[in-house]
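Today's session is about reading a structure prediction critically. Students often jump straight to the picture, but the first step is always the sequence itself: look for stretches that repeat, for charged clusters, for runs of hydrophobic residues. Only then move on to the predicted structure, which in these notes is written as discrete structure tokens rather than atom positions. Here is the chain we will use throughout the hour.
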Amino acid sequence: MSEISRTAVLPARAARGLPVAAVVAALGIVYGDIATSPLYAFKQAATAAGALSAESILGVVSLIFWSLILIVSLKYAILIMRADNHGEGGIVALLALLDARHAPPRSWRASLLVVGLAGAALLYGDGVITPAISVLSAVEGLKLDAPMLSPVVVPLSVVILVVLFVMQRRGTSFIGNIFGPLMLLWSLVLALLGLHGIIQEPAILAALGPEHALVFLVHAGPAIGFGVLGAAFLALTGAEAMYADMGHFGSGPIRIGWFGLILPALVLNYFGQGGLLLWHRGGRTIRWCSSRRWRRLSRPRRSFRAPSR
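Below is the predicted structure for this chain, in token form.
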């Protein structure tokens, strides 16, 4: 959603003059993709991990958490957003800073033009695929409570996408004013649901340690590890919008929205999903780090029996 709306530019002065309004608008434009990734990212990563165990659940949650910290927070929010071209961001802005078009033939700067074209193609591909995945994943939730609605999932998703794309022709400001408050509410719901899952199984907080991700990838094998990495990358889709949309809102509102709301909501939700998996799984043995010592936390397996009629 955010990639297509970039064609309509919100005046930079208006965005910077109203920081609160710019932050709320950025929530709906910049984070429309990455904030909806909890709908499918953790599910796909857990499925790719194969048989679910305590180690695999902790490994997947740790992998997603540190991907958000290193790639989105450090790479995009802190480092790349500093490389702007007169306030503009994106792959085209990087090429303009390198002046690749006027580079001598067969030089290393000239070869970067090909890399820039490939990056622009990937950006367009992501703009086509990600909204479809997000909408379809959200509508598929209807099948959980109403399985008889399964035949209408795809047609309803198409209708929603058509309506969204038609609305985007009104520009970034219009879309931001509508979806900004909605994304604010959505992020709060993500955080509360994730907090509930963490309370159900606080042992999931052990995934804060990066060693769980490393140990899982080492012991899972190349095939499973590669599949989990590919699925976990879905949690990062839309992160490039932080850099590409700097011309609309400025770096300040985008960073405030990420560190102040979106990142905490995503972290809480992914940990909550992992906590619920651990809680439903029953018996387990988890290595927990406390006071610089490793100790084992064990609980008896819960038995689930169907209610007698």
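Discussion point for the tutorial: The chain has one domain: 4-299.
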